[in-house]
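Q: Now give one record:
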Amino acid sequence: MGRLVVIEGLDGAGKRTLADALTAALTERGRRVARRAFPRYGENVHADLVRDALHGRLGDVIDSVHGMAVLYALDRRDAAAQLRADLLANDLVLLDRYVASNAAYGAARLRQGADGEFVAWVRQLEVERFGVPVPDAHLLLRVPVDVAAQRAEHRANNEADRERDHYEVDADLQARCAAVYDELAAAGWLAPWHVVDGSAGVDVADLLRRVGL
């Protein structure tokens, strides 16, 4: 049985780059790695509805924090069986965003903290009701909000399919989300958290050791 490790952080934090480095390091050791990213745009109808809402194509759906959270959660519920199969077939299943993203962004939108009603509601919905696999560890890729925003804007300008969405362009929301992520990490929400400085070079070998790989 493999380990389920989730990379979390703001839009533009560098999650994909970190995932590439971890995958390369483990592959060199002969370890098997499966990677997935949420939302699963182009793979799942709920994820595609999320994308439409984030880009203003679903009317006022974006205004409902709980409604958006349900769409995110349904995407993961539909992926749960595949994640379990991935865990049986690989040493590591590495996810770019997972349940904690839902908790952090929704709480930030509602101006709540990690100890608020919304975070508890997300846990009850996704873990207890939908039964999605629980992570073995989280990697919080922490970068200053302005740095993350610059990276997200650069990506949008250079990748045709990466136009910035409703959440990405809201600097205040990103700042509040960063604070909730820090609180989730401090509380060890769902699984142990390991904070990574996304502004500095990452010691990949040390990071893998910290998550038990």
The CA atoms of residues 24 and 205 lie 11 Å apart. The domain at 3-210 is CATH 3.40.50.300 (Rossmann fold).
